[in-house]
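Write out the 3D structure for:
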Amino acid sequence: MKEAFRTTEISDPQFESDNLRFITIKTNNLKGRGDICVFVPPGENLKDLPLVILLHGVYGSAWVWTQKAGVHYTALKMIQKGEIKPMVIAMPSDGLWGDGSGYLPHNQKDFEKWIVEDVPQAVLENIPQVSEKSNWFISGLSMGGFGALRLGIKYSEKFKAISAHSAITDIKQMPLFVEESLENYPQEDERENSVLGIIEKYDDHLPKIRFDCGSKDKLIEYNRELHSALKARKTDHTYQEFPGSHEWSYWQRYIAETLLFFNAEM
């Protein structure tokens, strides 16, 4: 297989720990380098494993899902208990633009293609437990929840299911978190700027969709509005509310719901 990237760096197994690997690639989509943290479950002869792409929120990077929520420990424990099948979890940076790229194309960089093209390709080239036969899933929190919903729906031919936690549902909500001007984010097609708009644009073939939000989260009303709108248009989805706010303790606890949801679609 011809390698897609001019340069690739991957961590050395003798120095790795906790079933985590680290990849850095150079990509034209970012006009530079991008980082990916990858959880690879232990075991012999594992192949064609499902690939879960897990997106972070504003201020974060490739390391936050492991170092602030311990998702690799959660996944390993659930695999060992037989609650979920083995899966590879790829946790990329968002491209590290400003406080958050929104996983959108803007400012001469394509943060969207970085996620849907470069990240899976980098995993395919470097993690032998994943193959062309692997099913793909996508999830994220906050800005990453927006990215997961938007990209999972737009590229439904790639992703079998989507799950989002505490999601931004429209780019108009980005100023709640970032200092960069909202003018950076809007797409030419207005429907590309919101989860509901993207569903309306690409509703001919939707993957399985779930999302949740904490009852005290600053984004709760936006999530309730999205749920109501999807019910009104009879779009099949799962929506849940749990106790909690826009905080890591919430995401650490409820990422298990995402892994269970994806496992049911494997």
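Helices lie at 64-67, 71-80, 111-126, 143-154, 195-201, 220-232, 248-264.
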